[in-house]
Description:
- By secondary structure, the protein is mainly alpha-helical.
- It has one domain (about 5-85).
- Helix content is about 60%, strand content about 0%.
- The chain contains four helices and no strands.
- Helix 1 (about 5-25) packs across helix 3, helix 1 (about 5-25) crosses helix 4 (about 65-80) and helix 2 (about 35-45) packs across helix 4 (about 65-80).
Amino acid sequence: xxxxxxxLYACDELSGFVHAVALVRPGRVITGLEPSxxxxxxxxxxxxxxxxxxxxxxxxAELEVELDEHIAFVVAALTGVAPELxxxxx
Length: 90
């Protein structure tokens, strides 16, 4: 598996999950979304139940980055396109 394949795999499930977390925040604001908040939602199996949590954890491991660092990277990337995703940067 190439580094690009690993990056796509690592970001796929997590980007959808981060988007879902931001959607339920007041004002749908993604700015300031902390990795700890995302990890807390990951533990809630009822929240975004179709997201494969194992893929999220495995993706970060395959990129050889800490989960918090990976979540922060995805949040930052999604912040750049927040309006297109129906999110606010408020």
